């Protein structure tokens, strides 16, 4: 099965064996799920040179995988996912771990060897690992944000519906250089509150939860975000730089101050692949040798 056709042939909530080249990797991160529970996740993108598939590993499995990725490995890393769970997120195929999932990195398998041979071709490697039209995220302060010129503007065709019961916060953010008005959409608000708008509304309507309000009648959950440190990705629009409109949309946010990842230098090495151990041993992939290269 070809990776480029997985959106057609892979059914949701099924288990599958997949092989691919790790194109992008995001280290383990902490988050709160929709139930307000603490979780950990790591995300990566795998490719066969024709199309990409998103992969998400959760909690202890993600921690184990993150630890494995920090071991000395030939780059780019080729991964075999055995017994991975197939789902969809935002209309795209997303693979994740289940109780049966095993991961092999740079394993001595004929599908992996074949991918190494393909990567030895400079044109294929450039196509498979290239990041077209990707701009480096620039870390700036409030004062610098207000001085951006029109060259900072980008077009965005994303369509986001806003039903009644979704968050939209208008906040004042500040650093050592000044203050700026920021609009937090539903996803950004849920990220820092740990609740959905519907759940918070239900709590506010419950008489037994009178203690959750301030004397002014505001939910204490909303005020809990005040005077905390956050890192935001700000969307700069034409009105901001042309008309000096000082209200900005945030399209990503996380708690605390985070450093931006440096550029990684991924070099293609077509020598014999290094064998690594699976991140979990709860499943025996007896049919692994039958994996088709195209099943990536």
Automatic annotation (TrEMBL):
User: Which terms does the record give in the GO molecular function aspect?
Assistant: DNA binding
Spell out the CDD domains in the cross-references: RPA1_DBD_B_like (cd04481)
Top-level taxon of origin: Eukaryota
Residue intervals passing through the bilayer: none
Enumerate the spans annotated as Replication protein A OB domain.
10-103
Question: What Pfam families does this protein map onto?
Answer: REPA_OB_2
Cite the InterPro entries for this sequence: NA-bd_OB-fold, REPA_OB_2
Q: Would the keyword Hydrolase be found if you checked this record's keyword annotation? A: no
Keyword vocabulary terms for this entry: DNA-binding
Q: What protein name does the entry list?
A: Replication protein A OB domain-containing protein
| Organism per entry | Daucus carota subsp. sativus (Carrot)
